[in-house]
Amino acid sequence: MRAAALAAGAVAWTAAVLLAPFALSSHLAVPTAAAAVLYDAAGLICHQRPERSFHLAGVQLPVCARCAGLYWSAAAGALAAWLSRPRDMRARSLRVLLGVAAIPTALTVSLELLGMASPSNAARALSALPLGAAGAWVFVSSLRADGGRNGERDRPNGL
């Protein structure tokens, strides 16, 4: 159940990030308070700079464009890993996968830090997609493989 919980959590977090601006713009007490907590939590791991963030309903997302790309693709990667057939991959293969998936993000971050480029928010988000998807796929797949070794059944019914 750990893999399912991680996949569900990734999807829930992504949905919360996308719904938070609408909750803030609703001016209703409970949704606004919940969104404020989400923005505070996201602020612990993201710089939340307005010029580097997407906006929905005229309100900034609680995470920057790069983090949004990571989260969106992590939700997809987690679901794909949970719904797919478990594969036994070697640790070295997983490290290579993560390393290759990190290249676009590392490249855009490096170019920004060196002052050689200023990618758009869309480019920041797109460069993060491979890393988010690969990271979540590795984590969920690893949990499923570990569950199989421990005799647990952690996959959707019928698969």
Given the C-alpha coordinates, what overall shape results?
flat
- Content-based structural category: mainly alpha
Count of helix runs: 5
Name the helicity range: 55-70%
Question: Topology of this protein?
Answer:
Layout: H1 2-26, H2 29-43, E1 55-56, E2 59-60, H3 65-83, H4 91-113, H5 121-149
Antiparallel strand pairs: 1-2
Report on this model:
This protein has 159 residues and is mainly α. It has one domain (2-149). The protein is built from five helices and two strands, in the order ααββααα. The chain has a two-stranded antiparallel ribbon with strand order 1-2. α1 (2-26) runs antiparallel to α5 (121-149). It starts with a helix and ends in a 10-residue tail after the last helix.
